[in-house]
Design goal:
This protein is 44% helix and 15% strand. The protein is an alpha/beta fold. It has a six-stranded parallel β-sheet, with helices on both faces. A five-stranded parallel β-sheet has the order 8-7-9-10-11, with helices on both faces. Strand 3 (84-88), helix 4 and strand 4 form a beta-alpha-beta unit. The relative contact order is 0.12.
């Protein structure tokens, strides 16, 4: 297949998903043209900012850069002539691109990464974006999204890149007893309160009331080295939406986030919350869980004192996810969906 893969816009988190499937689809023999949407957004934003500074009559609108960048997607479709356009995340892609690609008769498949947190927004993208099929990262979102949109929706679990996430010798300069890096949602801040006072703990990331700096956004390769160099990696899944930080309620997530796979793939021991039913399906009893802050503190103290138990858990967790790579997910789930969409026109 000839696949135009549209990167999501942000240069972290969802970018890693796009890059993982970009490499996987190529490795499986497909012809992939990567559209670096984020670069065009940056270019047009800078150009429009300069225009506004030099021309007082021009008023820059919030969506102008996205509108112009989206038109470049259409030009790439005309030049590359793909069988299908695969859009990663899709939250930043202007509707203009969807409309024009649809007029060209090229099917669009949407790979969702933020279920169930923003399923309302993602359903709108599916309904109004001429989407031929969608894949979502949470099993509980499949039926609600399909019923809300009338579009075929499949479950695509999170993955990892084995060239980045793999067991390795600890880096002496990065050694920690306890590690967490990620968005510091209020529930995580409350849960981790006091842990930073442990002799050798690292709790890092950025909070919702601050703007993420480059220091806050750790490259995935460096994060893998951090996992390889810690005794206990913490994995606490989100339990709130992005909208006014409301509880998920009936939208409660079922599936694991990418951190669960990445920690295990690095051969690290992890402690995880017990909110995701998929945890035992994937890991059995190889990933211990905690129920609250007090229980987390007890588990940390327990496992810091038991090296052999940590190593045993980590080894079994690595074995459980060894095939959960982007390439395996693409071969088993993504490519069959793309092929069927292309076949059906």
């Amino acid at each position: 297949m000839r696949i135009l893969l549209v990167y999501p816009g942000p240069t972290h988190s969802t970018y890693d998903v796009a890059n993982g499937y970009d490499l996987a689809l190529r490795a499986l023999g497909h012809t992939v043209e990567a559209f670096a949407y984020h670069k065009y957004i940056t270019f047009y934003d800078a150009a429009l900012t300069a225009q506004a500074a030099n021309n007082p009559q021009y008023q820059k609108e919030a969506g102008d850069a996205f509108f112009l960048a989206s038109e470049r997607v259409v030009l790439r479709v005309v030049d590359f002539v793909p069988d299908v356009v695969l859009v990663i995340a899709g939250g930043a892609l202007h509707r203009r691109a969807h409309e024009l690609v649809h007029r060209l008769g090229v099917p669009i498949v949407l790979l969702l990464t933020e279920s169930p947190y923003i399923d309302g927004t993602q359903a709108q993208i599916i309904r109004h974006g001429h989407i031929a099929a969608a894949l979502t990262n949470d099993k509980n979102s499949v039926i609600p999204l399909a019923e809300a949109t009338g579009v075929r929706v499949e479950y695509l679990p999170h993955s990892f890149n084995p060239t980045v996430h793999h067991p390795g010798a600890p880096d002496e300069s990065l050694l920690t007893d306890v590690l967490f890096h990620g968005t510091l949602w209020p529930e995580r801040v409350a849960l981790f309160a006091g842990l930073e006072k442990l002799p050798n703990a690292r709790i890092s990331g950025y909070t919702l009331d601050s703007t993420a700096t480059q220091q806050d956004l750790v490259d995935n390769k460096h994060l893998a080295r951090l996992y390889q160099s810690t005794k206990i990696a913490l994995n606490h899944h989100r339990v709130y939406t992005d909208t006014e930080h409301a509880p998920l309620g009936d939208q409660a997530a079922y599936s694991l986030g990418p951190r669960a796979y990445e920690i295990a793939a690095c051969g690290a021991f992890q402690l995880c919350d017990a909110t995701r039913p998929e945890l035992t399906e994937v890991f059995g009893d190889s990933v211990p869980t905690y129920t609250d802050a007090a229980d987390l503190r007890r588990k940390i103290e327990y496992y810091l004192a038991r090296d052999c138990e940590r190593i045993d858990h980590a080894l079994r967790a690595w074995y459980a996810v060894r095939d959960c790579t982007f390439e395996h997910r693409a071969a088993q789930i993504l490519i069959p969906v793309l092929e069927e969409v292309v076949k059906n026109g």
